[in-house]
Amino acid sequence: MEDDEVANYLSLNALESCGITNVHVTQNGKEAINFLEQEKITPDIILLDLNMPIMGGLEFLQKCHERDTCIESRIFILTSSIRPEDKIKAREFDNVKDYLEKPLTDEKVENILSNF
């Protein structure tokens, strides 16, 4: 989930260069919740920005927790936020596996994939 088109483009390139091609992009947390509930899917991995319009990443995490949506997904925070309180709050959710700074690189994708 990312609202910045350039960041989406860079992330998609990094994912594709590591062989990941089944990717769905949403612009905010609300759009992502709607997609997950309508499609009734549980993604293996969710890359989540914290600062997005309409519904940000922390609110998305809370809604997922309340609704048991994506509870089995491994969530990786990918953000430009360096606020310590954001990192602390995100780590309160069991399925948040790491907190990464943008941009997503091939090396970061390899680290994410090593969690499987």
Fold blueprint:
Elements: H1 5-17, H2 29-39, E1 45-48, H3 57-67, E2 74-79, H4 84-90, E3 96-101, H5 106-113
Parallel strand pairs: 1-2, 2-3
Helix pairs in contact: 2-3
InterPro entries: CheY-like_superfamily, Sig_transdc_resp-reg_receiver, TCS_response_regulator
Domain Response regulatory: 1-116
GO biological process, one term: phosphorelay signal transduction system
Give a quick rundown of the structure:
The protein is an alpha/beta fold and 116 residues long. It has helices at residues 5-17, 29-39, 57-67, 84-90, 106-113; strands at residues 45-48, 74-79, 96-101. This is Response regulatory domain-containing protein.
| CA gyration radius, whole angstroms | 13 Å
Uncertain runs are none
Mind telling me which CATH architecture this is?
A: 3-Layer(aba) Sandwich
Element pattern in H and E: HHEHEHEH
Average pLDDT works out at: 88
Number of domains: 1
User: What is the number of helical segments per DSSP (H or I, 4+ residues)?
Assistant: 5
Structural commentary:
The chain has 116 residues and is α/β, with parallel strands linked by helices. It has a single domain (5-113), classed as Rossmann fold (3-Layer(aba) Sandwich), CATH 3.40.50. The protein is 43% helix and 14% strand. The chain has helices at 5-17, 29-39, 57-67, 84-90, 106-113; strands at residues 45-48, 74-79, 96-101. A 3-stranded parallel beta sheet has the order 1-2-3, with no helix packed on it. It is globular, with a radius of gyration of 13 Å. The model has no long low-confidence stretch (mean pLDDT 88).
Output the keywords.
116 residues; 5 helices; Rossmann fold; single chain; Response regulatory domain-containing protein; alpha/beta
